Amino acid sequence: MGEFSKGLEGVIAAETEMSFIDGQKGVLEYVGIPIGELATHSTFEETVFLLWNRRLPTSSELESFKGELRKRYALPSGLARRIPEIPTTAQPMHMLRTLISEMSLYDTHPNDNDPEQARRKAMNILGQAPTIVAQFDRCRRGLPVVEPDPSLGFSANFLYMLNGEKPTDAMTRAFDICMITHADHGLNNSTFTARVVISTLSDVYSALTAAVGSLRGPLHGGANEGVMKMLNEIPSVADAEAYVLGKLERKEKIMGFGHRVYKAKDPRAKELMALAKQLADDTGNTDLYEKSHAIERVMEREVAAKGIYPNVDFYSATTYHCIGLKLDLFTPMFALSRIGGWAGHVIEQLSDNRLFRPGAKYVGPHDQPYVPIAQR
Amino acid sequence: MGEFSKGLEGVIAAETEMSFIDGQKGVLEYVGIPIGELATHSTFEETVFLLWNRRLPTSSELESFKGELRKRYALPSGLARRIPEIPTTAQPMHMLRTLISEMSLYDTHPNDNDPEQARRKAMNILGQAPTIVAQFDRCRRGLPVVEPDPSLGFSANFLYMLNGEKPTDAMTRAFDICMITHADHGLNNSTFTARVVISTLSDVYSALTAAVGSLRGPLHGGANEGVMKMLNEIPSVADAEAYVLGKLERKEKIMGFGHRVYKAKDPRAKELMALAKQLADDTGNTDLYEKSHAIERVMEREVAAKGIYPNVDFYSATTYHCIGLKLDLFTPMFALSRIGGWAGHVIEQLSDNRLFRPGAKYVGPHDQPYVPIAQR
Fold it and tell me: Among A86, A268, A314, A328, which one is least packed by beta carbons within 10 Å?
């Protein structure tokens, strides 16, 4: 057995052709294409095709991929009936994890892992998860559900189902860029979870259900809620500096800063920053952006030397808020996007699988007798 | 970054005080007590206390633990109403994964991870999972559900809910020993999954839901079904030798043999072998045991030199069959038991947490341009 590295830091657990990260330089590429290029030119659907096939699609391949996805926006009737029965107090991530798991009960071949079947299941989840989130949110707000519109792309359709009206092009594009930038990121915890689970040759539903559960945690996807809560705690732009300095003095964490992998500014944060500014201006939330930017300036002055920079959560919070999303839907948005990455990693793992079965270092006692209960 | 070890073989991913395995010598201990001692003297409830507290309980502690567990046999009404709605064609492991996830929707504080709350959630799952499995099985058989009996221990209550009549003491004891021997086993894939998921500080429901999904796979808990299928393929004891030799010649896998960790006879198989023989004799299944034993003898002669020995699945299949369990409930039985281990590892991980975030080795292209779609 090798050495024990807590949290597997520094251990290489898989090979991938999907995303490349240079944490020192602040580089993120999907299949070799810089994330900035994709954010500027691509769409979420095309990006998912890229991740699943490790190349960009031709026109006809992209049309076919979009067609397959859009056919799956609608929920099977058993699942659709479930949405209004879910307690309105349920937290969306627990709800989403449960309903992705439940999709398997309506799949006549839930366990098939051959490449075609695995992609079909991945497409089911990618297509249906937005519908689940939007319809649940409508139900808990006491509003009628809005059926998906297969003439719309992934992002426009989601915003339409959520708000009951067609989104503006600017909103759709902003949301799509959030989806593109969150889709894959090496062996983050939830992606690693998905690969570990599929390595028993279980199934795509089991793997992605597990990943949603991982993403929920505040040390992972749950962090974007924390950024918004922090922004809400700061009364105005003028208070941002004192707030940050106070936190630093008390050695408290500033939400949305620092990353295990990046020791430079997260390239996703760079993309989202410009987006957040534009959206904030468009939607009368300029103050929110200005607060964020003020925090970043103080942090840069105080702790950038320690390699602590804004991460992906920092500006995605402002973006999601400006789109009109409620706080507890921030992490589910991360999930909708990351389904693309999770499914790609599951497909990749299945193509050259080996069961994940690490060792544990036993640090307890040995040779203990079973002492009868009367003598304890 | 270190070297890439596929499947994390040889990598130590966590420290534990729960189980110790010596694969060369065929030793398994829970908190230092040999598994044979526990199988002979302990009960499943006491074993779970041992795993969660890393010591055996006093009389009054054990009574209190059993009381807490038995209070939780009954399902919350929202969950109880769900059981008859589940498609009768649903596979039990997909169903169980979904309903453990769903428990979180009826917990008013699903995300609390302090030690007391984490134990409370673990106890909920340990208490309710058997009820879910038994009631689902009754419903799909068209039989009325049997409410749990809190005067009965874990194993007797489960068999009572499943069959609608109180089990014999011999049945109860056999089932309890299966539960004891399957409860924990180092960083097997599902336990590792549970630790990875809780390390984002998500929650006990997310972690155990993920673990059920991992256990489903045929390379993990799903293997015990394969043993039974193999036994059914062999017409009689006299055919066992030819069957095994034929498989070996065609280089096919013999189900229930070999283990990544053990290069000697799995100590759990030793315990279950005697149990399987007794139960098979008691229930008129002597042939089934004899077939298993004949397979083991041929395998010992042919491949023991390569370190291929019976694993835990080999004799648990006969045991579960003799108890009257249908094939697709074998893996859920593994889950009911392993909930004890998973929850113990979650508690242990929370007590000294570090986010699991390994690295990936990127093996794809770099510096790729985004080629406009018309030019692809």
Answer: A328
